[in-house]
Design brief:
Blueprint: H1 3-15, E1 37-38, H2 40-45, E2 53-57, E3 62-66
Parallel strand pairs: 1-3
Antiparallel strand pairs: 2-3
């Protein structure tokens, strides 16, 4: 490695701030599952959130998590996103 390579690395690191990992969960102050709504199958089988599919409910205006092909919001029954 030449001295030019070292200078290029220092210039690059000062100019570019890279994100360390692609799947880092955000910092959470409370229990992540305390306010999470799960569908009936996810609740029945005790599936962790990482193995469920997130859905947006435009009626409730929140995200809920379901297992496999669950499509109805467990809070209001909305089936149209």
């Amino acid at each position: 490695m030449t001295s030019d390579d070292k200078q290029d690395d220092s210039k690059r690191s000062a100019a570019i701030v890279s994100f360390p990992f692609s799947r880092v969960p955000p910092a959470q102050t409370t229990d992540p599952d305390s306010a999470v709504t799960y569908g009936p199958f996810a609740t029945l089988f005790g599936i962790p959130r990482e193995q469920t599919t997130g859905h947006w409910c435009s009626h409730c205006r929140k995200i809920w998590y379901g297992y496999l092909l669950e499509v109805a919001c467990p809070a209001c029954g909305n089936r149209h996103g």
